Amino acid sequence: MPQNEHIELHRKRHGYRLDHHERKRKKESREAHERSHKAKKLIGLKAKLYHKQRHAEKIQMKKTIKMHEQRKTKQKNDDKTPEGAVPAYLLDREGQSRAKVLSNMIKQKRKEKAGKWEVPLPKVRAQGETEVLKVIKTGKRQKKAWKRMVTKVCFVGDGFTRKPPKYERFIRPMGLRFKKAHVTHPELKATFCLPILGVKKNPSSPLYTSLGVITKGTVIEVNVSELGLVTQGGKVIWGKYAQVTNNPENDGCINAVLLV
Amino acid sequence: MKIDVERLLIQFQDEDGVVLGSPFDVPLDITPEKLQLVCNSLLMKEEPVPFAFFARGEAEVVSSLGSCVKAIGVETEQVLPVVYQPQAVFRVRAVSRCTSTLQGHTEAVISTAFSPTGKYLASGSGDTTVRFWDLSTETPHHTARGHTHWVLSIAWSPDGKKLASGCKNSQICLWDPVTGAQIGKTLTGHTKWITWLCWEPLHLNPECRYLASTSKDGSVRIWDTALGRCDKILTGHTQSVTCVKWGGDGLLYTSSHDRTVKVWRAKDGVQCRTLQGHAHWVNTLALSTDYVLRTGAFEPSPARTPLQHSGFVPQGSNPERLVSGSDDFTLFLWNPAADKKPLARMTGHSALVNEVLFSPDTRLLASASFDKSVKIWDGRTGKYLMSLRGHVGSVYQVAWSADSRLLVSGSSDSTLKVWDVKTGKLSIDLPGHADEVYAVDWSPDGQRVASGGKDKCLRIWRR
């Protein structure tokens, strides 16, 4: 029996005291008086602490009461029209203040120099080898342990053929091979199911990049010819990078966000 | 001893390929003026009309036929087709000075429009009023109060007797420009703000009764202004509808943030076609018959080129063309009445395209974009012609002069620039606004340009 259930156990076995419920009710009703007595009579450090706590409680209570009251009464809309009138073609766009534009330009130049790129998920948990690769024992006495099986979702190219089974060190199971990803365009807020062209970089290790392992935070290249994007010169863009946002081995699908 | 000048056989053709007269030979040093005389006499016109000549339809004959022929390298043995294009008989002079600053709005001026006759000027603003201005004295005429939020779009009826205005609280009001009073009652029905208003063209209905409005809620409503109620609701777009144009043959074209352009039949509200192809929001539409439908009822100058009026018959040689500009930095040229596939895709901008506009003679197309440039394209084929660079901020709106030779553009860098389209150079720079210029319009009689912006003033520019 766990340590903390003796009271409940006793109650189950023997029931409540005969006057339990009445005593409980009366004690609860005395609580308000006791609280006010404490508030008046406390002195010193204890008083300070108590009053501070009570002040915070009261503010919260007042806020919730005000919220409830607002819900009950319907307020007439504020007559004053907001400032910052813009024409219809600028309404859905966030205008940038001019100071911001300059500072953004400088920041971008610095980042480009440093070689850092902006991705939606900058930091992801690094996956260790024991998590991603499972040891497969082979040999007559099942003692050799040089083979590894990938436990995460991976992408192999179109013309992929396995090495002869005797010599292949990394096994990528067919059940975990995916060809398509659900890619969301961040501005349009629409999701498309696009074929994957390749794995660009897996943040945990370059070994996983070469194997084609797709985990959360991996940058993959997808075929966007479906979207109809065009470069300035008129050429159709057919490949773009996207970053994976879920754990595909848990969900069974790859969700990614397009890097525009 | 006189040196014999080389001669060349030419054949005059008009823009559609119809030949004029028979081939005859001319000396290579013939100038465009002499070619004009010949052409005018062949066409047997009473008044001489100025023409522009294009050898084989591509290179324009500027100084003499010889230099043009050398440039494109044509065989002198064969007959050379020379395409002649009538130009506007009247010439609009470039505006060069700000004649008045009309103050009165207490918030940014968001939209401005001249009436089809060019007599009245109306402006909608963020202070919820629509103001009418008297153009002869350049002073305020009326202030129309009635809206409760920013007046986002205004549209004159084709007969110039009514003005419709739509606001951010999804209400539409009609105003009488003469008295400044509201006509009828406020039209409500949309659930989100009004993005564009467009009247039915005059030749389809001379009493100017029906008005189409689009809103962020994705629906298009056709209102009967005589009865003051909504006639039809066209739903089909899944996101905000940005622009609507009423075509000359009773078709409605709408563009939306869901990357499509839809074609509807105005009579029964049935959707005919969906034009797909854009990869991002479609911001703006332009019809080749826009200018004719706007001003066709009136004759501002006595000698207008006859080409303008033939726009009423869209079938045949010159079907109505539609251009859509989008956030994916490209424009599409469509023939929407005929088929779903675009005629051309115009790429080249490096930022989103905010406005496209056909020139009044429909031969040229101007696109204003947030990449600080205005690009000129051929109005029939969509071929890129030139880029007008000079602005240092996003170009918000453009307006053509009535003779299609000048273009004015207003931008977020608070200047307006008048461009000469023939040379592709800046004609006049018009600084003066204190803040971004949100709306630009050129009056149909070519006399004035009105511009309004964030600095709450409306400026009128004249020669």
UniProtKB/TrEMBL annotation, chain A:
It comes from Oryzias melastigma. It comes from the Eukaryota. CDD domains: NSA2 (cd11381). Its main location: nucleus. InterPro entries: NSA2_fam (IPR039411), Ribosomal_Se8/biogenesis_NSA2 (IPR022309). Component of the pre-66S ribosomal particle. It is found in: Nucleus, Nucleolus. Involved in the biogenesis of the 60S ribosomal subunit. May play a part in the quality control of pre-60S particles. It holds the Pfam family Ribosomal_S8e. One of its GO terms (biological process) is ribosomal large subunit biogenesis. Keywords: Nucleus, Ribonucleoprotein, Ribosome biogenesis, rRNA processing. This is Ribosome biogenesis protein NSA2 homolog. GO terms for cellular component: nucleolus; preribosome.
Automatic annotation (TrEMBL), chain B:
WD repeats lie at residues 102-143, 144-176, 187-224, 234-274, 346-387, 388-429, 430-463. PROSITE patterns: WD_REPEATS_1, WD_REPEATS_2, WD_REPEATS_REGION. The keyword Transport does not apply. GO terms for cellular component: nucleolus. It is found in: Nucleus, Nucleolus. Keywords: Nucleus, Repeat, WD repeat. It holds the Pfam family NLE. PANTHER family: NOTCHLESS PROTEIN HOMOLOG 1, WD40 REPEAT PROTEIN. Belongs to the NLE1/RSA4 family. This is Notchless protein homolog 1. The lineage of its organism: Eukaryota, Metazoa, Chordata, Craniata, Vertebrata.
